[in-house]
Amino acid sequence: MTLSGVIPPVCTPRGADGALDRASLSRLCHHLVNEGVSGLFVGGSSGETALLDASTRLAALDVAVEAAAGRVPVLYGVIETGTARVLEAARPAAAHGAAAIVATVPFYVAPHPAEVLAHFEVLAGGELPVVAYDIPSATHVRLEPSVSIAIAREGYAVGLKDSSGDLAGMRTVVEAVRGLPFAVLTGSEVLADVALELGADGIVPGLGNVDPAGYVRLYEAARAGDRAAATAEQARLTRLFGIVDVADRTRVGFTAGALGAFKEALVYRGWIDSPSTWPPLAPLDDVEKKAVHALLEQYLGRS
Amino acid sequence: MTLSGVIPPVCTPRGADGALDRASLSRLCHHLVNEGVSGLFVGGSSGETALLDASTRLAALDVAVEAAAGRVPVLYGVIETGTARVLEAARPAAAHGAAAIVATVPFYVAPHPAEVLAHFEVLAGGELPVVAYDIPSATHVRLEPSVSIAIAREGYAVGLKDSSGDLAGMRTVVEAVRGLPFAVLTGSEVLADVALELGADGIVPGLGNVDPAGYVRLYEAARAGDRAAATAEQARLTRLFGIVDVADRTRVGFTAGALGAFKEALVYRGWIDSPSTWPPLAPLDDVEKKAVHALLEQYLGRS
Amino acid sequence: MTLSGVIPPVCTPRGADGALDRASLSRLCHHLVNEGVSGLFVGGSSGETALLDASTRLAALDVAVEAAAGRVPVLYGVIETGTARVLEAARPAAAHGAAAIVATVPFYVAPHPAEVLAHFEVLAGGELPVVAYDIPSATHVRLEPSVSIAIAREGYAVGLKDSSGDLAGMRTVVEAVRGLPFAVLTGSEVLADVALELGADGIVPGLGNVDPAGYVRLYEAARAGDRAAATAEQARLTRLFGIVDVADRTRVGFTAGALGAFKEALVYRGWIDSPSTWPPLAPLDDVEKKAVHALLEQYLGRS
Amino acid sequence: MTLSGVIPPVCTPRGADGALDRASLSRLCHHLVNEGVSGLFVGGSSGETALLDASTRLAALDVAVEAAAGRVPVLYGVIETGTARVLEAARPAAAHGAAAIVATVPFYVAPHPAEVLAHFEVLAGGELPVVAYDIPSATHVRLEPSVSIAIAREGYAVGLKDSSGDLAGMRTVVEAVRGLPFAVLTGSEVLADVALELGADGIVPGLGNVDPAGYVRLYEAARAGDRAAATAEQARLTRLFGIVDVADRTRVGFTAGALGAFKEALVYRGWIDSPSTWPPLAPLDDVEKKAVHALLEQYLGRS
């Protein structure tokens, strides 16, 4: 398994019955693979994983693995507060076809960086390779660059998914892990071109659900050294990313606004059936949906 | 079930084999009940619940229920990031003997207060009564007083465990829920006397593992209107609470330092066998353990 | 000078010409003294001091000193980012009649607690006694209780104005400074009764501009040991304090909403002429003003 | 005046008498100009401006203006909590030879973005052009990209000094202000090459005091499109920037550690006489100074 290219954190469609909409998820995964992504990341933040029970999370993994059909690897996110919980949630992943797990730092608790490192040391004993997941906006615990570097040097993980927003920190990690079997993936939707130039191996953009071909073009342009093309794609995608801000924040939280917009866009594209998010996230209203559509009409790339 | 008195968030002893030390937990629960607590809260933050897998959490519940033997109710904490996860983790609790669940707000995600309320609305449909758990230092999401009040008015929960540190907010809730079947429990170790004076129904102090009789005396003095006695107990307990600060924070995180100190104190008292905390928390060193002992020698109340 | 009783942080009226409205300030100060306050605190956060230039700040001091006419001491707030700036701003205060300065910790910079202590050591060399001002919601630097205690023990200051919201910390300071010439003043509008019970010497409530007699009654009841009366006053004042939340926060910041409400209330009482706040704070709109009036009609105490 | 190139935020040397060391500052400014900087920024965060009184700040401006001798413009930082304070502190700047002021958002208070915009509208009425200064790590108030864009469109300022760390936000501003007379300067020491590629007009690195020639080479390489050369300079400078982390943070604050290291490096280079920082910042100890020297020996560029 090579961690590179575009690996979207796949949205988790919810059916009218309040359960996983397997058909929509399968359709979405097929579209993503057909548009050229290098992997599927099921169980990430964009997948509303923090809001799903265990059987739904595994069912989503099953659907993605079946849809990928070996064409691309499927990564499985494990958003859990502690070490034993990660191990427990990760245990069935290999049998269900995951190629690696993507695990957060411990959160809710307040760990010391040395304890974060110890966490990944334990996780390294699991069946699957681990990608360390740094998303302090959600966990409120930073995976410090120095800890990521130690993880890479000790071989506790095969990569980092960096959603910290700290590009200087990512750069430090990229330079320190050069030559090690350790991939650095950026979670940024709007600095993907820059992250690639700085040496990131791949990108994991939530917006990649909506416009996978755009991110693939961006990635390939960057790899080919065609900076102008990468920047132009990025500029368009950044405008498209405006959909995460259309929701009225006096009514819905940021997560609901952003993920509701991704799902509304996927409905618009015909890739999933319903924009329904998982409880307790509130839905977009009609005005907000229209604002999503308007941005899609203006900025969605044509494959 | 009445939610009042002292309901300690029970520590979760870890054995030399890295598994739940059932004998120690049972002994601890017996001591707590014998010293007069009104309930046992298994699965709270002091129980390192965020670091335990599901079977360990349920095993701890089993031990506590057996030890309580009907003398006091056992509450079961459900520290989970989302609604479906709470429902899933809470599902077996009734059959295992829990009297109520204590559930956090959604975290990791960034919910709007209206989404927090919707979360508790869903939880109200579960088998057991719910106590809402406000601990923003851990979740980084506040359960706003206005939401707690709405929860009480709608009957979504039977109480609030307030570990917010916001005594003014707690007071607002206390006054607004007067007459409703809704208990307010403070999680404060050091303002328990004040919280009781302001109308809190009970206290849920982590330090109550170590000195349950002291908190029981404090509670009873407060209930009897003997402010001087309550204050004197509080003053002693506050000094004893200094054990949470003995750890060298350049080496271990706050959680490890505080919970390691509680466990070291329980070993000192002979109530559990080992101060071992759950991975990835680092242990106290010998100097720190001696500092815990010194504070215990000076400030531990004698039953 | 004794630091006790009610010492309101006096609002700074702004005239139609955009300059200090001396007549209104003088009228306000007369009302405050006549209603029984123990001192006037000019230059605090409620006085919008961070938004005033030096000559306006000193002019406000002059007006207050003249209005106080020796009946009560006038404290002078010095909200400055660094030690030399505090010394500079404090220098003229004695000649202008201030009895003490109230100085923040260094902010904008990120000081170590030992550097905060060193700051107050230097300030102690000034002409006037110093009250240390802890308001981390504004400075984003905590004056740690341990540092306040060191300040008291070293004699660097004669008191603490505690607007931290950390009642447990205040209690620690109160107990540690017992017997020292060091007063602890709470800045809380809504826990003033509790703070007094815990040993605070006085209260510095922004809402004391609007209802000084209420806070004086609360203080005297607390001092007389009449807890029921103190609590009843507090309950009413807490409801009145709702005026700080009437503003639409999608339009104005918290500071503008709260201080605009205080000023609107003072206009309503006839104590100042205009609710104008200092640039760049936005004014309340008519709907918000009416909401302030409604709360005043319901909850303003009659002298 | 063109805002481009390298404009270091000049350190403010402190003499053995505790006053401004004019000779050292003059020497420093001469070195900076001789090494090719495009401007001098006196009164910035690296100049410890928050810790200096008004006369020292103006004296530093005088020395810099005299040293610059018209070869480069001198910008004057105005770190003040409110609008009137900025106007007051900026008033003498033109007469003292400043080419522009660099003004923070209001802080200490909690302004709404619309109030931040109103602040700069007022400042635009002053004598000198304004550069808006976004440094939320110090002010704890963000100058939102949308507000910077509005400032540019309204002509309230001639530029932005972006020390937010938010490269995506900077990029948004750069793209929105294209064609407007509005320069974007990054305050980043470690992403200067990236910021320039993204369209920043210049760089304002605190480390530029220590290695101005390195940043000038970086800037010129970036302008010439020689990405490899820019990146190589950046990599070396990033390693050199490690000096800000040598201090023991259990003993000194971050500001003291970073600025003390800059000054120690300037002493090492012979450009100033003493590493003394301004009260209440604590000095580096000998071990820390040696660590600074070691990094200088390894990574300091030779002119």
Key terms:
homotetramer, 303 residues, alpha/beta, TIM Barrel, 8-stranded parallel beta sheet, 12 helices
What does this molecule look like?
Chain A has helices at residues 22-34, 54-68, 83-90, 113-123, 136-139, 145-154, 167-176, 192-197, 212-223, 227-240, 254-269, 286-299; strands at residues 5-6, 40-42, 74-78, 100-104, 130-134, 159-162, 183-186, 202-203. The longest helix of chain A is centred in the last third of the chain and has 16 residues, at 254-269. Chain A has an 8-stranded parallel beta sheet with strand order 1-8-7-6-5-4-3-2. Chain A has 12 helices and 8 strands. In chain A, helix 6 packs parallel to helix 7 (167-176). Chain A is globular and about 50 Å long. With 303 residues, chain A is α/β, with parallel strands linked by helices. Chains in contact: A-B, A-D, B-C, C-D.
| Proportion in helices of chain A | 40-55%
- Fourth-level CATH superfamily of chain A: Aldolase class I
- Strands ordered across the widest β-sheet of chain A: 1-8-7-6-5-4-3-2
Number of helices of chain A: 12
Measured by residues with Cβ under 8 Å of the partner chain's Cβ, the largest interface is: A-B, 45 and 45 residues
Rg value of chain A: 18 Å
The appropriate CATH architecture of chain A is Alpha-Beta Barrel
Tertiary shape of chain A = globular
CATH topology assignment of chain A: TIM Barrel
* CATH class descriptor of chain A: Alpha Beta
Helix and strand pattern of chain A: EHEHEHEHEHHEHEHEHHHH
Residue stretches of chain A low in confidence (pLDDT < 50, at least 5 long) are none
Our count of domains of chain A comes out at: 1
Q: Describe the main β-sheet of chain A briefly.
A: 8 strands, parallel
Query: What structural class results from the helix and strand content of chain A?
Result: alpha/beta
Distance between the termini of chain A: 26 Å
- Whole-number average pLDDT of chain A? 97
Task: State which percent range the strand residues of chain A make up.
Answer: 5-15%
Oligomeric nature of the chains? homotetramer
